[in-house]
Amino acid sequence: QVQLVESGGGLVQAGGSLRLSCGASGSIFTINAMGWYRQAPGKQRELVARITSGGRTNYADAVKGRFTISIDNAKNTVYLQMNSLKPEDTAVYYCNADTMMITSSASLEEYDAWGQGTLVTVSS
């Protein structure tokens, strides 16, 4: 199994900043990519930002220029620096990892891991 642990959510005023972190652990052979998704009340989960192990990134249009995703491959950790936060950024943010996992039979299989979510609340 692969476990993801997120941290860094909280309450911030509009225009403020927060930094989310997500560390992966467990039976990881390799991580292909990590990303952040968010789900606001009454809405579907959506991609915020994603980064490959090689550093290639993509962002949702709504966060381009304000959010920056980065990855520390040695620590299996992804970060999301969120600046100029807006009330519409309020959501539960989920970490995701696209991994190759070592199974109990010592084979490899793809495993899509999710964190438990961290709440980000931006007040106006």
Question: What's the quick description here?
Answer:
With 124 residues, this protein is mainly beta. The chain is 0% helix and 63% strand.
For this entry, give a set of tags:
single chain; 124 residues; mainly beta; seven-stranded mixed sheet; four-stranded antiparallel sheet; 11 strands; 63% strand; elongated
Describe this structure in words.
- There is one protein chain.
- The mean pLDDT is 96.
- The chain is built from no helices and 11 strands.
- The radius of gyration is 15 Å and the shape is elongated.
- The chain has 124 residues and is mainly beta.
- The strands form 2 sheets. Strands 2, 4, 5, 6, 9, 10 and 11 form a 7-stranded mixed beta sheet that branches. Strands 1-3-8-7 form a 4-stranded antiparallel beta sheet, with no helix packed on it.
- 0% of the residues lie in helices and 63% in strands.
Q: What is the count of DSSP helices, taking H or I runs of 4+ residues?
A: 0
Uncertain stretches:
none
Strand content: over 45%
Average pLDDT, all residues: 96
Shape: elongated
Number of strands: 11
Query: What class would the helix/strand composition place it in?
Result: mainly beta
Topology as a string of helices (H) and strands (E): EEEEEEEEEEE
Radius of gyration, in Å, reads: 15 Å
End-to-end distance: 40 Å
* Largest beta-sheet details: 7 strands, mixed
